[in-house]
Automatic annotation (TrEMBL):
The keyword Calcium does not apply. This is Thaumatin-like protein. One of its GO terms (cellular component) is extracellular region. PROSITE patterns: THAUMATIN_2. Keywords: Disulfide bond, Membrane, Secreted, Signal, Transmembrane, Transmembrane helix. It comes from the Eukaryota. Disulfide bonds join C37-C239, C82-C92, C97-C103, C147-C229, C152-C212, C160-C175, C179-C188, C189-C199. CDD domains: TLP-PA. It is found in: Secreted. It comes from Lupinus angustifolius. Belongs to the thaumatin family. Residues 1-27 form the signal peptide. The chain crosses the membrane at residues 266-285. SUPFAM superfamilies: Osmotin, thaumatin-like protein (SSF49870).
Amino acid sequence: MALHPQMMITISLVITIVLLGQRTCESARVFTIVNYCKETLWPAAIPGDNFNGGGFVLKPGQSSVFTAPVGWSGRIWARTGCNFDKSGNGNCQTGSCGTSLKCAGAGKTPASLAEFTLAQLDFYDVSLVDGFNVPISIKPLHGKGNCTTAGCDSDLRTTCPKELSLKSNDKTVGCRSACDVFNTDEYCCRGNFGNPSTCRPTFYSKKFKDACPTSYSYAYDDPSSICTCQGTDYIIAFCASRKKQVCTYHNKKLHCSGSQGLKSLIGSWWIVMLTGFSLLTLGIVF
């Protein structure tokens, strides 16, 4: 019998935690990265020391859990359409950071970005300034302050203006930014347009903003797009609604948004262990 994707992701998190014996300190942030897309993704992060060296693979329904210390500042995104060999060398249709599975530099545009600065008060946002390749959301859990969910639920690949579309085999695989396509000062917020007073929303940035109102649509979109939270963990979900229930591990317990935790999702531990045994037997990678 096939498992519901939400059940599979929740159980995989539990088994990963049990097998690894993961422990986190109070000053660290837990990042749970989940692939709800129907396609395989190759998430990337820079700096990537705390994220499996900067790159890894997630098949549909899979998740991975990482921790990053306070002081970490960086970005996380998804790469799509990748083909890597056993040595980790290859290429991607979008978000590529060169020819390596492990990213040491920024991804090639277009890419939907999750950006973070971890401090006593964390700052985070979802940015479409470099274009769009997959829907992405950032949900903080059990933090303090104005801990809102950031992200882009809409799939801009289906509504991307023709002149911004990145295609592969006649299929739109990404939506480029106007700056990337036209390379003008107005669209790139540089030169005479290099400040908040002169760099204003454009026809294209408004298209992005209408589709994804809680995301950066251009360089000076700060007031409505940047979020703050204190002492929180984060779920980065690809291809999921910002209202979708998601889970993370904190203080040796699994916490889920909009629930009473693990019990409400999977009942009891014998179900976890039984299903975990089935998943391991099937060779599912956590």
